[in-house]
Amino acid sequence: MFQRFVPHGALLGALVLSGASILGGIANAYTAPAPASSNARFSEQTEKETVAEARALLTAKDPQGAADMIAKYLSSSIAGYELEDVYGQALLQLGRKDEAAQHFGIALRLLGDNEAPKKAITANLTRADPLYTRRTSLMLRISKDLLKDCEKMLAAGHTDRALAILEPLEAIATGVEKQTIVALATKIRAATQEVKLDQGNGDEAESGARPTVHLEGKHYILEANLERDIVQRVSDVMDDIFNYYVLVYFDRDETRVNPQKPTIRIHPTHDEMMKEWQGPPNPGIGGWWSPGEWQVTCYDTRSNSGSLDQMLQTLYHEASHHFMTMLSKGGTPPSAWINEGTATFFEGAKAMADRRVLWPDAAVDRLRALHYQLTGGPGPTPAQVISFDQPGSYAGEYYSFGWGLVYYLLEYEDPTTLEKIFRPLYSQYRETNAMRGGDPMELFKQVFLGSKAPGGFTTIEPWAAKWREWILNEIYPLHFGSRIRDLRLEKAKLYIEAAERSKTEKAAKVAESELLARALGHLEYIRTKIDGDLKLDVDLILMQADVLERMGRPQGTAALLEQVLDLADAGETTLEPERYEELEKRLTKLDVKNQALRQAKIHCKNYAKQVLKLIDDYQLGEAPKCLTPYEFGRLTSNVLEYDPLSKVTEELRAKAREAGLLHGALYKIGGRANAWVSLFERPDEIFEPSDTTIAIANARPVGRLFTGVPLTGEYELRCSLNRVGELSLTTFQGVVFSGNPTTPWYTAGIDGKGKLVLRRYEKTGSERALKIIKLDVPVAKDESPTFAVHVYPDNRVVIRIGERAPIEISLEEDLPKTAYVGIFSKNGRTELSSTVLEVFP
């Protein structure tokens, strides 16, 4: 069976990879030997200087000197192809062919389309590895055949099964095959990824310097001071959500849409945008819709938040007003609560990377504000919000109420039938109010109150009391608090049971398919938003598989069943033999018609035997290798999933590690703020990331995680630690060596007395000291030592501080299964430089 393969994914910010390299088509771990003194300060020599000095040493017939110098440089820096090539030459001259082959391969990958030096590097690679040509030829055949199998699986709807093969296959493919594999895998993953407008964009120009880009999409004309590719993404996203506007406002009847395309004008900054604002001063405005100009106006929110997420939410909101203008046929806009309430409803929409838009969930910022107001914070009453009948919009504190009222009308479910009983009345009110105007409260009474209306309330007060109870007791706990998972699981089970009953009911108010879709939404929320890779709940996965099968989606069902069986095979969960057999039979039955998968398994078994034969040939040479065949076996076994190959690969790994040849992929940590997440989200926190230095400061505990490199095994974080500011008894400056957004954060650093301290922090702000170690030589106030934390899968950490002896610590609790690293500070300013992460294979 094919196991799910979880790649590192796209690397954010200034992340640079020098490890998962392509050796003429093979991805390899970075194999630079450890520097002569791992505690020495990182070299400040440039790469160009290092290349020149290394070449001079080779000319002087001193390959050992060249190798040592480059190794020291690579302990804290990312190399280009020239340095990797020179390193390979030095190692080759020293007779260290196994390692030389790795670095020539890295050089080839870094070359890209630069053909000029490729011939000489390839010749050296062949001298270092005489089996290189056979190896690359075999991987090319594997890539071609399995790609064809995956394309057939995709055509039959088996997307998850295809992705499980495509992701590891990407590491060994080259040329056209690699491009196709990347495109297919990206398309599949897009179905579960929300659009991030600025993700992966490398334009570092100041926003004010960007020229205005003009672009006409299917439904909108854009004039924006953004990068051209981002303007295209904005156009695509707005075309996607346009269809939901049509559904909500015009019941899917696109013939009611005015053919004149609105303009979306995006200014470079808030100040530039406000030059066009005609109303009273209001610094909180994020954008607006102008019926007279037929235009949405907003600004590049990276200029003050570092992200375009806020701008996208503003666009969802303001573009909705365009439809309300069409609904009122250009006349007086409808009452503010229905106008703004509907616009804020769309703030909860999610545009996915595969061009789908998910039906709006709760707009969490509005929900958070409304909860505060309903539990004692200042704010209006529902009656005041509904009764507001003045031109334009209402005060800012009314917006959360408007959202909550419309969300209630569109999403409230009758407890008995689960029917969304207010939706027809919402449409009736909106249409009537938009076309005829009038007193908004009087119309509300006619539509929503009275003996025939849901609830039978005759006055607004008990109706509003029920609405308040629904918001506080049903909706808010689904998004905030400690019971989110339990409540969503209860909801999912409720819908599944109702779906079962609906099959026998003569006049079910809600169709079985709709109930199952609601259940699936909650199950997917739990698995993606709450559990992620950190929690593997087999019962939940199987529940989702059952729902998918009842919805007529056997392909998704099969993928989930296979995942559960794979977890059992890997020892990550326990299944009774009878249950394992039952699931295996169920999977086999579902896969009977999956000819492409069966062919892929045949290909995998046959190719695995060829890989094993080549690995044997590596062992029969005059100088048997372990590093190169290990990397070859590791990558191909990820794809081929053949137990004998996996066993041989592990044996080779042990030999390479014992020989001191197995080192990790090297990543540089830094970059833009949107590559980091905050632990405490303090508004007065100072955070300054760059390609060279990362700084964070506050009187209270503050921390940030770099999200570019997910970590699941052994790794080492290295940096130079600079402690800035006056030191006190409460000062703590260091790094996060393990943590993620949903688990505690584990930190290591230096306190005000120069001692080493390990602490555990919760999002609530609570902290616990795990270890306090008095160093033989305390870290002096003016000392900026190298600081390294080596993390092992068995919860051991080894810490090195400057030239001091390494300190090994065994933690008494489990570290997160998937983690990130970062920076931390308390009562001071922490600055990290030369920050690198080595991830071991």
What does this structure look like?
The chain is of the alpha+beta class and 841 residues long. 45% of the residues lie in helices and 16% in strands. The chain has 27 helices and 25 strands. The strands form 5 sheets. Strands 1, 11, 13, 14, 16, 21, 22, 23 and 25 form a 9-stranded antiparallel beta sheet that branches. Strand 21 and strand 22 form a beta hairpin. Helix 3 packs antiparallel against helix 4. The longest helix has 25 residues. The N terminus is likely disordered.
Question: What are the salient characteristics of this protein?
Answer:
841 residues, alpha+beta, 9-stranded antiparallel β-sheet, 27 helices
User: What is the overall shape?
Assistant: globular
* Largest sheet report: 9 strands, antiparallel
Helical proportion, percent range = 40-55%
Beta percentage is: 15-25%
**Which runs of at least 5 residues are low in confidence (pLDDT < 50)?**
1-43, 201-208
Gyration radius from CA atoms, angstroms:
30 Å
Overall pLDDT metric: 86
Oligomer: single chain
* Discrete helix count: 27
Class by alpha and beta content: alpha+beta
Blueprint of the fold:
Layout: E1 16-17, E2 21-22, E3 27-28, H1 47-59, H2 63-74, H3 81-93, H4 97-111, H5 118-128, H6 132-155, H7 159-169, H8 175-189, E4 213-216, E5 221-224, H9 228-250, E6 263-267, H10 270-274, E7 287-290, E8 295-299, H11 302-305, H12 309-327, H13 336-345, E9 350-351, E10 357-358, H14 364-374, H15 382-387, H16 399-411, H17 423-436, H18 440-448, H19 460-475, H20 484-502, H21 512-531, H22 538-550, H23 554-569, H24 577-590, H25 595-619, H26 627-640, H27 643-658, E11 665-668, E12 676-678, E13 686-689, E14 693-698, E15 702-711, E16 715-724, E17 732-739, E18 745-751, E19 756-761, E20 767-773, E21 786-791, E22 796-801, E23 807-810, E24 819-826, E25 828-839
Parallel strand pairs: 5-6, 6-8
Antiparallel strand pairs: 1-11, 2-3, 4-5, 7-8, 9-10, 11-25, 12-15, 13-14, 14-25, 15-24, 16-21, 16-25, 17-18, 17-24, 18-19, 19-20, 21-22, 22-23
